């Protein structure tokens, strides 16, 4: 497909549950992640927090894009997200839902075409729409020699 864009990053364990994420984008500094105690030291955000950050960041950026598309120049947008970690029937932790609140910096009457903006901005959000639709994930485990020990194909 001509419109495909490949995204890449690499993780490397630093110690215990701390991982350095290196992005395949020029100029982006690595990001340190960690699990909270008792597993890790809490030296960085954990994957659950990164997921929630990605969802809310994408929605805020999509709202900004839609506002500007209709010639609005808003002040600084804010977003807050709340989610509850719950155990599934098998006893595994999951995040079954998230609630994102986007805060516009001005009163509603300040914006041009706000009804149209609100009707469509979520459709621009790659992350949130991908999560909503369910991302197919293929998992491979290889040893240091490249021998594949496990492959779980996306459905």
Would you mind describing this structure in some detail?
By secondary structure, the protein is of the alpha+beta class. It has two domains: 1-44; 46-152, K homology (KH) domain (GMP Synthetase, Chain A, domain 3), CATH 3.30.300.20. The protein has three helices and nine strands; from the N terminus they run βββαββββααββ. Strand 1 (9-15) and strand 2 (18-23) form a beta hairpin. Helix 1 crosses helix 3 (126-133).
Q: Which descriptors would you attach to this protein?
A:
GMP Synthetase, Chain A, domain 3, two-stranded antiparallel sheet, 3-stranded antiparallel β-sheet
Summarize the structure.
This protein has 155 residues and is α+β, with helices and mostly antiparallel strands. Helices cover 25% and strands 26% of the residues. The protein folds into two domains: 1-44; 46-152, GMP Synthetase, Chain A, domain 3.
Largest sheet: 3 strands, antiparallel
Query: With helices defined by DSSP (H or I, 4 residues minimum), what is the helix count?
Result: 3
Identify the CATH homologous superfamily of the largest domain.
K homology (KH) domain
Tell me the β content.
Answer: 25-35%
Q: Examine the secondary-structure arrangement and name the CATH architecture of the largest domain.
A: 2-Layer Sandwich
Which shape, going by the Cα principal axes? globular
Order of strands across the widest beta sheet? 1-2-3
Number of strands: 9
Tell me the count of domains. 2
**Classification by helices and strands:** alpha+beta
Q: Any idea of the CATH topology of the largest domain? A: GMP Synthetase, Chain A, domain 3
The value of Rg in angstroms is 19 Å
Order of helices and strands: EEEHEEEEHHEE
Q: How far from one another are the termini?
A: 20 Å
Report the average pLDDT across residues.
Answer: 94
**Low-pLDDT stretches:** none
CATH class of the largest domain: Alpha Beta
Q: Helix content range of the residues, please?
A: 10-25%
């Amino acid at each position: 497909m001509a419109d495909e864009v490949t995204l890449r990053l690499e993780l490397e364990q630093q110690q215990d549950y701390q991982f350095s994420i290196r992005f395949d984008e020029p100029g982006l500094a690595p990001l340190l992640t960690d699990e909270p105690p008792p597993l890790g030291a809490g030296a960085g955000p954990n994957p659950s927090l990164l997921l929630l950050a990605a969802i809310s960041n994408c929605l805020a950026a999509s709202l900004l894009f839609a506002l500007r598309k209709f010639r609005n120049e808003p002040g600084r947008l804010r977003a807050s997200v709340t989610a509850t970690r719950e155990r599934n029937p098998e006893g595994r932790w999951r995040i079954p839902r998230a609630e994102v609140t986007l805060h516009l910096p001005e009163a509603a009457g300040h914006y041009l075409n706000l009804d149209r903006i609100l009707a469509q901005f979520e459709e621009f959000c790659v992350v949130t729409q991908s999560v909503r639709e369910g991302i197919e994930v293929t998992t491979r485990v290889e040893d240091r020699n490249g021998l594949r020990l496990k492959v779980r194909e996306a459905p």
